[in-house]
Design goal:
Number of domains: 1
Radius of gyration: 18 Å
Number of helices: 9
Largest sheet: none
Distance between the termini: 33 Å
Structural class: mainly alpha
Oligomer: single chain
Amino acid sequence: MTAETGVAFTAAVLVFAAIPGPAILACIAQALGSGFRSALALAAGIVLGDILFFLVAIYGLAVFAALLQGLFVVVRIAGGGYLLWMGWRLWTGTSTPPRGESTAPASRHAFRAGLLLTLGNPKVILFYLGFLPAFMDLSEVKGVDVAAAVVLLAGVLMAVNASYVWMAAKARNWVESPAATRRLRRGAGAILAVAGLFAMFEG
């Protein structure tokens, strides 16, 4: 991958990543409901799932993935259900001070939810299969090019997701009253639930 191709690849990924979708909504809702750390863990899980599908697309395993469509359905339902559960926890949980951060176990839950959210959507593979030929010859893939593309992809996706998370976490910190905190948590829980339903029935 040349420097020019790398710049073009980065710009294209940035444009696509910045368009809000279920993953971005889930990150925002998690930041509003549980704080920056937990939402960042969710974003990291989403990015890891994207990287795995990216590698699957590069190495021509889309046919193999199609054979496992049933498995993707199970993963998609599990990921959506996980988001529904997290939304329910936010809706029914007690109103903690808005500046409080989530615990490490909560962050691990968020990371798994983000990973499942991406892995449950095999359409990502098809997107990369259509996207990648413009930037690399998939018939002659070199390890160094794959490594460079993965680093660029992970960096851009994480930067975009973290930006949304940071803005949402800052908005969360402006809320002071218990009543406002409760409304914020319920709103965030509702958004997570909607993202979960979308993930479950999108396919």
